[in-house]
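Help needed: design a sequence for this.
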């Protein structure tokens, strides 16, 4: 009986040590608080990036209608364009907030992981946990760096769209449309490139979010 109890204690102790690495190497257990926060942020960022790409495309439709004379109601197309610009500004603000929060959440996640890993007695598991932690840290930092680059383009596009909107708001005549043609054409090219980048960055966020989620599902 004493031998059975000793064996049972060893098994329970081993399982407890394995689950210390819940968010780092994977364990069918409850995830740590900071790992959940980080995973949710990355997931939400992916959705917001895709939304930003879609909204940007929505700004192009009415703007092209106006520029190409494809509308009989310029005022209506302008209203649709202005509404799309407002939506894009909201998305850009949300992305900035998510990115700022993610940096803090990533730091908290790494600190929490370091503390957990230190308590793992099994050397192989401890090394695997550290390798996983380094991988998550590197990929999160890479996503943050990629977003920082895109952030500058978000600002450029926002400024360009608002310039076109303001110019149209004071003159929707044929002459007014001609006046915005050159800057509108320039911003259109930038938007098309940015849509591709946003969708690509969204896919990278989704991949990391999925892996972070699977790390505590076994």
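Sure. Designed sequence:
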């Amino acid at each position: 009986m004493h031998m059975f109890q000793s064996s049972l204690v060893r098994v329970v102790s081993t399982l407890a040590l394995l689950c210390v690495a819940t968010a780092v190497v994977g364990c069918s257990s409850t995830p740590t608080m900071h790992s959940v926060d980080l995973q949710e942020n990355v997931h939400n960022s992916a959705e917001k990036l895709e939304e930003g790409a879609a909204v940007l495309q929505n700004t192009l439709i009415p703007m092209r209608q106006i520029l190409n004379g494809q509308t009989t109601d310029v005022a209506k197309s302008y209203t649709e364009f202005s509404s799309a610009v407002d939506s894009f500004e909201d998305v850009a603000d949300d992305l900035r907030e998510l990115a700022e929060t993610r940096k803090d959440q990533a730091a908290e996640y790494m600190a929490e992981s370091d503390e957990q890993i230190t308590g793992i007695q099994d050397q192989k598991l401890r090394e695997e946990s550290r390798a996983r932690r380094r991988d998550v840290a590197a990929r999160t930092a890479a996503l943050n760096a990629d977003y920082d680059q895109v952030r500058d383009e978000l600002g450029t596009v926002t400024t360009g769209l608002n310039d076109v909107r303001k110019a149209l708001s004071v003159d929707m005549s044929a002459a007014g449309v001609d006046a915005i043609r050159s800057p509108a054409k320039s911003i259109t090219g930038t938007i098309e490139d940015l849509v591709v980048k946003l969708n690509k960055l969204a896919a990278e966020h989704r991949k990391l979010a999925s892996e972070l989620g699977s790390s505590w599902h076994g």
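The helical segments are 2-20, 22-25, 33-67, 74-118, 123-170, 174-214.
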